[in-house]
Every structure is written in C-alpha cells, then in structure tokens.
Specification:
The complex is a heterodimer of chains A (90) and B (262). By secondary structure, chain A is an alpha+beta fold. Chain B has an eight-stranded mixed sheet with strand order 2-1-3-4-6-5-8-7, sandwiched between helices. In chain B, α1 crosses α6 and α4 packs across α5. The chains are: A alpha+beta (90), B alpha/beta (262). At the A-B interface, α1 and α3 of A face α1, α6 and α7 of B. The structure holds thiamine diphosphate, iron/sulfur cluster (3 copies) and magnesium ion. Magnesium ion (MG) binds next to α3 of chain B.
Amino acid sequence: MKIEIDESRCKGCNLCTVGCPYKIFQAGKKPNRKGVLVPLLDRPERCTNCRLRHLYGRVLCGVCQMTCPDQAIRFRDEKPGETVKVAIEY
Amino acid sequence: MSYDEWLRQDRLPHIYCAGCGNGTIINCTLEAIDGMGWKKDETIFVSGIGCSSRAPGYIVTDSLHTTHGRALPFATGVKMARPGFHVVVFTGDGDLAAIGGNHFIHACRRNIDITVVCMNNQIYGMTGGQGSPTTPMGALSTTTPFGSAEPAFDLCELAIAAGANYVARWTSYHVKELTKAVKVGMETPGLSFIEAMVQCPTNYGRRNKFRQVLDQVEYFRSHSMMRLKYLQHEERGEPVPDATIVVGEFVNRKRPVMGLPK
Ligand SMILES: Cc1ncc(C[n+]2csc(CCOP(=O)(O)OP(=O)(O)O)c2C)c(N)n1
Ligand code: SF4
Ligand code: SF4
Ligand code: SF4
Ligand SMILES: [Mg+2]
C-alpha cells in the first residue's frame, strides 16, 4: 500500500507536515500548475498504515488522511507488478 | 478509510480556504458515521448558513441547507416526522449560538435524538470576520478592532445546562478523539452535542497572531487540557492557565428523549 497526494485537491496548507510521526510529509518548494506548493513525500515506505494495514486488516494511524482538510491524501494498493519499496526498521 | 464514500467527488475540492479546519471535521464526522453502518438513504444532514454550514453540500446523502440559525428547528421537524432517520446537524458558532441561540437551548431541553456537530472557529467566517458569541475576550475581529470586551459563551456548558444527553469538545488537532466522540454521540439516544474547535486562518488566524495555519493548530494542541485533569485542578483550587481549552467528554447521561423510533 502507498500514500498519494491528489494534486487536483491539495491546497498546500501543510497541515499534513505536523501530524505524521515519521515526518513523511515535507513542505513543498516548487509551485505546481495551480500555484500550489504540494508537500513532498520523504521515504513514504516508512508509513505504518502502508506497511501493516493488510496484516492487521484495519486502518493503522491514518492521521494524515483524517487531518487533510481537502481530502487530498489517499492510500492505494500497488498495481500488480508494481515495485514495492520496503522500509528497514532501525 | 471510507469517509470518501460519503463525499460527492464531483463537488470537490470544496470552497474552503487553504487550511480551513472545517474539512477536517467533515472527515471525522463521516468516518464516525461510516463506523455506525448507517444507510445513506436513511441519513440526513441539516445545516444553517455559514462556511461550516456548507458541509452537507459535499455529502452524498439528502440534506437541508436552511436559513441562518434555523438548522435545529428543521432537524427537529425531520426527526419528529421520520424518527427512523439518522439526523446530523453541521453548524457554526454564529449559526448555533448567536442567531440560533434560542433554538440551541430548546433542542437540548427537548433532548431530541439528533447529533449536532458545531465547528467553532470563534468568528463569523463567511461574512468576513465579525465577532461571534464565542470570540474570546481580547481577540480581534472586524467588529472588535480593539479586542473583544465581552466574555464568550462556553457552548458545552450551555448544552449541559440545557439538557443534552451527550456533550464533548475536541479540536481539529485531535482527529482520532473527535471521531470517537462523534461516534459515541451518535450511539447515545438524545441530543448529542460535539463542539469541534477549528482554525479559520483567513478571518480569525491572521488577525490574531496565527500567521500560519499550523500556528493555530499547534495552539490547540498546546492549550488543550483533558476535562478530568481540569476538574482535579478545580477541586484542589489550583489555577489553570488562561485560554485553556478543556477537551474530552463532558456528559453522557440518560435524560428522557424525544424523537426515538417507536
Ligand atoms: C438572517 C440572516 N442574518 C445574517 C446573515 C449573514 N450571515 C451569513 S453567515 C453569517 C455568520 C456565520 O457564522 P458561523 O455560523 O460562525 O459560520 P462560519 O462561517 O464561521 O463557519 C452571517 C451573520 C444571513 N445569511 N441571514
Ligand atoms: S494537508 Fe492536504 S491539502 Fe494540506 S498540504 Fe497536506 S495534502 Fe495538501
Ligand atoms: S498514516 Fe500515519 S504514519 Fe502513515 S503517513 Fe499518515 S500520518 Fe504518517
Ligand atoms: S473564511 Fe474561515 S471558516 Fe470560512 S472557509 Fe475560509 S478559513 Fe474556513
Ligand atoms: Mg464561525
């Protein structure tokens, strides 16, 4: 499972940059077509929900998705054959 | 997560300003509803007028976007006519406590079986930032340019005094807790009142030293105190810091209820 930010919805408020325990969302620097600074994802494979959702069969954490006032953050399953990056726990 | 299923995808993105807390509260409410397993054609959203009151327009179920302050009378009508329906009200601090203040206390007194979610941004957001009954003392708004000189309403205490069966307060920072509270409210027969403190960066934040959206959310985090802790402080006669936001469940009781299905 992986995180995606829907650029057609994100308004660049940066609320997602505070809630995540892994600080996966980093404030964006380059404006997109609409002039919005969409946050960048820093090693999103570390996300608890992306790693463990299927193992536990329920949403884990999910704080970024609940917080995003513009419903721009989504979790989606990889397509068949899509490479999956695995986080190494330290 | 499944709040997405309840949203009218063709209407998004919504009109709220960047970083407006209302969107977060919609997420939490819909998530709670999804957990209830309610059917979409048996759930009705009702609202008055204001930024907060635009919320039902983004939701797939039937809804009533009524006149300013009158969401609760309309919701009462729906519930009395169709007690089997689940009625959820989205309202703002101005809508609920200023023009709709009278309806608020009487809906609580009647303890009608609906869930009321108030997005309290402490300001009239939609009309450009006039002071509301919940604007804190000293806060700047277009109608209080030297700082509000009036004490603010505590909406939760008001709901308790008037008779609501379930009362809780959280903020847009506390998404998990808020979702839980809305769900418990929906499970509780009678009027459930959930106050969600939200940031209005455009009309409250920028006039009141919250230059970034994040600043006000951080303020909610750092100034919140659990209700139990607050009561302990009160019992021991210890002062609590000014501007503390008391959060948590305030009341969960079983007064007689109106509007239950027979
Ligand atoms: C009868 C009536 N009086 C006044 C207005 C103007 N008006 C529209 S929204 C609003 C205040 C909304 O404040 P609130 O309920 O706090 O909503 P917010 O926009 O802050 O979410 C007012 C006074 C109106 N639409 N109708
Ligand atoms: S919280 Fe949502 S709208 Fe705000 S910056 Fe993050 S993804 Fe964009
Ligand atoms: S679900 Fe939690 S851990 Fe994963 S990105 Fe969102 S906030 Fe971070
Ligand atoms: S004016 Fe305030 S309440 Fe209205 S959409 Fe903008 S930020 Fe939200
Ligand atoms: Mg308001």
